[in-house]
Amino acid sequence: MTRTTAYGSGPDQFVEVSLPAGDGPAPVVVVLHGGFWRARYGVELARPLAADLAARGWAAVAVEYRRVGAGGGWPTTLEDVAAALDALPDLPDVARLDLTDVTVVGHSAGGHLAAWAAGRGRLPAGAPGAAPRVAVTAAVLQAGVLDLAAAVAADLGAGATVEFLGGSPEQLPERYAAADPVRLLPTGAAVLCVHGDADTTVPPEQSERYAAAARAAGDQVETTVVPGDHMVVIDPAGEAWRRTLDWLDARRTARPDRTTLEP
Question: How many CB atoms lie within 10 A of CB 5?
């Protein structure tokens, strides 16, 4: 069963909740799609992963949010992701959601948003997304844009980061300080970075830089590199997704109050 619920008044402010079989609460995985924060890419990129997660026993929440070109960018994209997460306790299906175990999974720009969501607790008062209502316990960063200053220097996405934040790190240092995941460490969340070795859209260096900084800050981070390009990590039939599922399932079964759920 999939239910669509608005968390704001705009047409791009909604979540799609896909529930697993059964009646009890299930661990939650929030899926954040990518597309360099631009409006031409939407929640349809997240749906195949959300459906697979629900079939395997997770409560999957695919998030749509405002993007650049359709009311998004700084600060609205960040505010939307924060609002979607903080709306989880108010969803009609909340009895089926184990909000003590919330993982964010994001691809590309969605990987940035997932890592940023995990680090929201470090944001100063008044910053977009500060004072999270729902804690993120784990994050899977799929070919994520995780070091925004490095992304600008490499011109990833033909100026996508500058479009997203409205300027360069030199022009808007306060925005980069509040939006750059590599500056919001440690998060305290367990992290898996997944990347294709032939990714030229978001090079593996982005995952490597974030993982090194997170480990140095004391976070628990694993990395996995698979053969393939930028999109291989979100193929539900691919090796990267299998490794992601294995990592998620290992975390689920490690909890003393939970046993493995059969798909």
Answer: 15
